[in-house]
Amino acid sequence: MTISLILAALFAYLCVRPILSYLYDAKGLRRYPNVNFLAGFTSLAYVWERRRSFRTRHLYLHHQRHPILRLGPNTLSFADPGAIKDIYGHGTPCRKDDIYTLTVGSHAHILNVLDRDDHARKRRMLSHAFATRNLEHWEFKISDKINKLIAQLDRRCTLPLSVGKQVRASDLTVNFRLWSNLFTIDALADIALSEQLGMLDSGTDTIQVDGRDGNLSYIDSLRGGNNVLSHFVGATEWFSLFKTVSGFFSPRSRKQWEHGRNFGRIASALADKRLQRHDRGDRLSDLFACLIEDKAGEARCLDRGEIEAETNLLLDAGSDTTAIALTHALYHLLKNPHCLAKLRAEVNEALSGDTIASYAKVKHLPYLKACLEESLRLLPPVSRGLERRTPPEGMQILGQMIPGDVAVSVPTYIVHRDPSLFPDPNVYRPERWLENGEQAKQMREAFIPFSSGARGCIGRNITMMEQQIFIATLVHRYNFALPSPDWTLDWQEAFLLWPSQMPLKIWSIDD
C-alpha cells in the first residue's frame, strides 16, 4: 500500500502536475510556440536540447519561423534585436536568472552573483584594472607569450605549399586550437597572477598542484566540469537529482565532475601562491592586486573564498573565450583568402620589419578590427542567450507584456544573423563593419558578443588587445593551410561554443 501511494504521488508530480500547469497557463505563455515537445510542460526540455552538439544553431532554425519561442514552462527566447535593450540594457528591471545560483561555489564571483549591489561592488573593484589604459602597461606580458609561441611555431614550419598541391597529413604540424589555448592560459596567468605557467615552453597544458600526485590537465579540468554542468543546469528543479545520479551511474560524468573539482583546486593553489608572494612583500602589478588592495593601497580584506571565486573566473572565462575567438578568427581568414590577403597588406604596412606586433601599431587598424568583429559576429564564444528574469510585476519586451519571474534571453548567435541588419548574414564580410550610416549604428547596437549593459563582459578590452596583437603577428609572419579547401570545423556547445581541433600546415611568409 505504501509503495502504491509513493508511485501514485510520483506519477502525479512528474506527469499530472506539469499537464495541469500547462492547461491552466497562469502566466499566459502557452501562446508562444514551443522549441520542442517538452517545453510547455517541463524544464527537461533544456536537457533534450542540450544533447545537440550546437544547440543554438538548431534554435536559430526554429527562430526563422517564430520571433519568440518557449524554451521551458517559464522560459522565453527572443530573436528580435529590439529585445536586447529591454532585457540587457542599462536600467533594465531584469535581474540575473536563478540558474546562475547553481554555478556558485562557496562564494559568488562577478559573473554569477545575483545581487545588484554586490555585483556593482565587484565591478568597481575590478573595472579600473580592466581599463585599456591600464592593460597597456601589461602589454609586455602578452608580447612575451607571443614570442614563446613564435619559437614553437617556427620549429613546426614546413616547406611552402605549391599552387595546386594538396596538403599532406605529415605537414599538419600545428593543432591551432591547442596552441591558441596554451597562449591564452599562459598570458592570462601572467596578467592576472604574475604566474609563469610555462605551457608554451612545454607545449602541454599540464600543471602541478601541491599535495596531489601527478599533473593535472588545465584544459580537461576546465572543460570537463563545465561540460557536465551544462547538461543539467537548465533543468533547475531536476539539477540536484541529475548531479547525484550522473555521478553515481555514469563513469564519464563522474570523471567530468572530478575534472571540475580539479579546476577549483588549480585556481585555489594559484590564488594561494599569489597571496603568499604578497605576504612576503612582493608588490606585483596584475589583476589579482585589485582583489587585495584598492587604488589607494588600502587592504580590501576580502574573504578567502571570494578571492578564490574571482580567481577561478579569471582563469576560466579569461582564457577559454579568447582562445575560441582566436581559433575562429584564423579559421574565417583561411576560409576567405581574399580577406586574409587584404588584412595581410594592412598589417605588413603597419608593422614593417617588426617580428611581434605592438599594440600601438595595430590597435587602430580598421580592417584588422573588422575581421575580428566579423568572426565574433558569426561565431561568438558565448552563442546562447544569457538568462535573465523579469521583475515580479512583469515588464514590456518588444511592446508585449511579459509576466513576472519569467526567464528571458536573446541568443547572441541568432541576433547576429538578423538579415535586416546583416545582409547575407551567414557570409564572412568584414567590410560591413567599415560602413557608416544608420544601418551601421543599428548593427553596433545588435552586436553583443560581450553581452550588453551593466552586466557586459568586463574583460572585453583585454581579449580584443590579445586578439589584435596575436592575429596581426601571425598573418605578418606565417602562411597557413587547412587540411583541404573544403575542410570545416565542428563544434560542441556547452556554456561556450568549443571548436574542434584545427590541424594546420604552416610555413614562413619569407619562404
Name the CATH architecture: Orthogonal Bundle
Label the overall shape: globular
The CA-CA distance between the termini, in Å, is 83 Å
CATH class: Mainly Alpha
- Looking across the biggest beta sheet, what order are the strands in? 1-2-10-7-3
At the fold tier of CATH, the topology name is Cytochrome p450
Name given to the CATH homologous superfamily: Cytochrome P450
Family: Belongs to the cytochrome P450 family.
Cofactor: heme
GO molecular function: heme binding; iron ion binding; monooxygenase activity; oxidoreductase activity, acting on paired donors, with incorporation or reduction of molecular oxygen
Organism: Aspergillus ibericus CBS 121593
Which tags fit this structure?
511 residues, alpha+beta, Cytochrome p450, five-stranded mixed β-sheet, three-stranded antiparallel β-sheet, 20 helices, 14 strands
